[in-house]
Amino acid sequence: MESRASAGKKRKGAATTSRTVPIQFDHDKFVGPKQAARYIALEKRNILPEKRFLINPQGTYRSFAGLIDTKKWDRLINPLEHYDIATVREFYANTLPDDDEPFTWVSRVAGRPVPFDRDTINQILGEPLQLGADERDQYHIDLRLHKDIPAITAALLLPGKSVEPNPSGVPMRYHREDMTPMAQLILLLVLTNVQPKSHTSTVPIPVAHLVHSILANVEIDVARIIANELKTARVRLPSRGQVRIPAPIDDRYVAKYCRAKATGNSAASGSTRVSDGPSASTPRVDPYLRAACEYNFQWMAASQRAMIDMHDSMQRLQLQGSGAHALMTREQFLTNANWPVDVPVYSEGVGADDDDEDDDEATGSEAGSEEES
């Protein structure tokens, strides 16, 4: 016979048990309830539309038109002028796999499967690059190597401008206003039709590497890049039924917007740019939040150096079939890759409760590898 206490506990536990209420959704439209919920969530988001590029092949920026022609990217710079947002939202909702299922490069729209793998995207673009099943383009091969920052800087920036480092001195990003008009035009193409981003005033190293590769006419499998963007994108969609592509980017647009920022003392501004975060003109920056961010940057930079050192050492071991293998000593390793030991502790500080507007520049850099599709 059970005691009153145990019987009471059982009754209490049974009373708190709840049943899962199934979500009602259109089975012909969505793969499952998770995708239906994703569709509703996407209604609250905005979109980053593609843009059309109408550059005069005989004009000032004819070298850009020549690059597009050489790479056979005509369809890439001429997207559709109208599209139905409900269809786009349905596509992105159904790309979301269930928790117990592997990811597939197939979505569903109006009950029909819609693949978006590399080969399908390449066909949509008119097959600008044909590769074998296991073949990789030069750009994706170069992603495995260290970025040639001096070469990127020399090719993309105006004279006297330089890359902005983080507090540890590691190159972090470029500023669009420091770039040549040609580099800014290619950047617009990348950030609107290849790897869409809402923030365009600063350029992370991986994006700059892609811009430099296009400028240098490196072989680029743009379909692979777009396919991976479709997989990983945090889609932002509007609530309007029809969306119109904005005005095209032409020679007048480039002449007006793709140029160095006019300042009273450009030489001084270029030489006084520092790497310790926002400038003094940025309003209401909490000093404690800034210190914590700088600490994180230092930690991540040290981690990156450590991984690079380990990779280089392992590569040397692989290349040397026999003989002595020289790994760094513990002291050498800590000298190069040591990060801050103590985590700083701060009080809330003045202005910590202020409601600042979101700053896109705080989003950081983007991942630079597209090796999945």
UniProtKB/TrEMBL annotation:
Question: Which positions fall inside the Putative plant transposon protein domain?
Answer: 71-234
Region Disordered: start and end of each range?
345-373
Which InterPro entries has this protein been placed in? Transposase_32_dom
**Which protein is depicted?**
Putative plant transposon protein domain-containing protein
- One Pfam family here: Transposase_32
Q: Which domain of life is it from?
A: Eukaryota
Q: Where is the composition biased (Acidic residues)?
A: 351-373
